[in-house]
Amino acid sequence: MKIMKTNDILSEKQKLILELLKRNNIDKLKDFINSLETPLYFLNSTNFDLLTLALSLNCTFYIIKLIYNRCNYKTLNYVVKDIYHLYDMSNHKDETIVNYQNSLKVLMDSNNNVKSPLLVSLEFSDFQSVEFLINKGADMYFKINGKYILEILREENLLTMRKLNFLLKNGFSLKKFKIERLSNFEFKYIKKCLENFVFDINFIKYLLNLYKNKAGISKRKFNHKVNNEINKIEIPMELYLKYLDRKDYKKVEYLYKYYGTEKTRSFKDFIIFYLNYFDRNFNKKSFYDFFNFIINNENTFPFSKEYAINENETIIINKKLKIVELIKNNNNLKLEIFLKNNNYILHCLYSSKSEILNLINEYNVSSDIVDILRKYFLI
Question: pTM of the prediction?
Answer without folding.
Answer: 0.81
